[in-house]
């Protein structure tokens, strides 16, 4: 394999010369004459190859990168396969980051919260559809494999949160935890950043809601259950399908669907209001499973349910298409055709009115299926959006004791 940049091309009546410069890997010149039976125009693009334990099959470049690179087969791929060369294992790297702020505010009319908190940037769960992938472009990294293998932990998140909640200008309102990237992803098991953030929230009676695919949230039930009893916490577990094989390719390092169902049951039995988020609904992949997911979650103790149609902003679109080609080549065109049917003919439409649920006939049919199943199962009978803000405690940050001042003239003696 090689990464090539097209350098130059020249043409005359006798032959055509294509010269490629390939990032310190090789130089190759292809000459095509008029008598040739075949006209070689360019190297074929290598098909995407899934990596074990990873969602993205490519490391697509971010939209802010100046140089564009393309992977091609330079003729050595077959040799490597014959000789048994194994590709290097892509290991997850955790980087410490000292953030400047920790609370993110938004005013989007289609989002039910105004403040969110994410202790991590990037997510090892590797969900191919994750709408947060493009944020890695701001770091000069790829929204593809980099997003799920190069994780940034905001190690000062608890201290920043303490400072923010202590400000006299802070107006208490519910906080959404782990909306962009999962707050209980694998790195949290050792770093315990989210645990410390939750402790700060509990100490100040600051209500919050959390969404996760991880069973690690059960570790913090000793804090979450008392907060839920005071009306200060609720949870949502994302389950897109009950098919373990599809989930393994779709969300490779998240808990299995059956394990997430057990988490719903555990949280519910602890007295924590818990719902299920079927996000996203992917046509012909997870969409046929929607009713079964709702039934299983209702039986496990979920009281609420919601869904979001597949969203493909920025670099997520090419990443998802590569994933489809690698895992579901038989239905890739059909999936994208249905996505465009629900997006006004485009891969994605960021219109606030339609970006969550889609538009058109197929979006309406999906909406009808969801609401019919919800009514049949008795879900969404309680208002899930009310958290009690009346007990919020503003704790002043502790100040270090200042040494007693001594009259400067005493130093003369």
TrEMBL record:
PROSITE patterns: RADICAL_SAM
Domain Radical SAM core: 109-346
Pfam families, A to Z: Radical_SAM (PF04055)
GO function term, MF aspect, one: lyase activity
InterPro entries xrefs: Elp3/MiaA/NifB-like_rSAM, MJ0683-like, rSAM, rSAM_sf
PANTHER family with a match to the protein in the record: SLR0285 PROTEIN
Name under which the protein is recorded: DNA repair photolyase
